[in-house]
């Protein structure tokens, strides 16, 4: 059964406009085009509990210890395009938490694969044993 799409209200997003880094001449020094978007995953009423848990469990450097996602967008020259980029990245991040990962089914190696592994190890051992001088006298 498909899950209804998650919509996040404006008041849950905190945007801050800062000056971008990198090349750009005088424009970079004057105009605050970069966007820092913050979204509090841990305290958001918009997220279902399983999605919140999956997002917080991800080992992502953009999520602070308090459960706040911080996205920096400065790829584009205009503030509006960077805002749009940050929101798209937020939507993509939340989308990754919508799908529960499949449980891994543990399997065992077959007898033939174990035998092939041991044969390969034995063959390698013989090759390496043949390399040493082993006290031979070539004179």
TrEMBL record:
Compositional bias segments (type: Basic residues): 100-115
Pfam families per UniProt: RF-1
PROSITE patterns for the chain: RF_PROK_I (PS00745)
EC number: 3.1.1.29
Keyword Hydrolase in record: yes
Domain (Prokaryotic-type class I peptide chain release factors) ranges: 19-35
Region annotation (Disordered) ranges: 95-139
InterPro entries: Pep_chain_release_fac_I
GO molecular function per UniProt: peptidyl-tRNA hydrolase activity
Alphabetically ordered keywords of this record: Hydrolase
Signal peptide: none
Biased composition annotated in UniProt, kind: Basic and acidic residues: 116-126
Protein name (record): Alternative ribosome rescue aminoacyl-tRNA hydrolase ArfB
Organism: Luteimonas soli
């Amino acid at each position: 059964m498909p899950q209804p799409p998650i919509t996040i209200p404006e008041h849950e997003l905190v945007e801050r406009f800062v000056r971008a880094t990198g090349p750009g001449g005088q424009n970079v020094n004057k105009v605050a085009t970069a966007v820092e978007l913050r979204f509090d995953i841990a305290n958001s009423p918009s997220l279902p509990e399983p999605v919140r848990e999956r997002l917080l469990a991800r080992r992502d450097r953009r999520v602070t210890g308090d459960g706040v996602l911080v996205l920096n967008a400065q790829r584009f020259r205009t503030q509006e395009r960077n805002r749009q980029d940050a929101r798209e990245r937020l939507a993509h991040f939340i989308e990754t938490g919508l799908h529960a990962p499949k449980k891994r089914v543990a399997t065992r190696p077959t007898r033939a694969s174990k035998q092939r592994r041991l044969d390969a190890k034995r063959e390698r051992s013989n090759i390496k044993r043949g390399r040493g001088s082993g006290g031979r006298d070539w004179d």
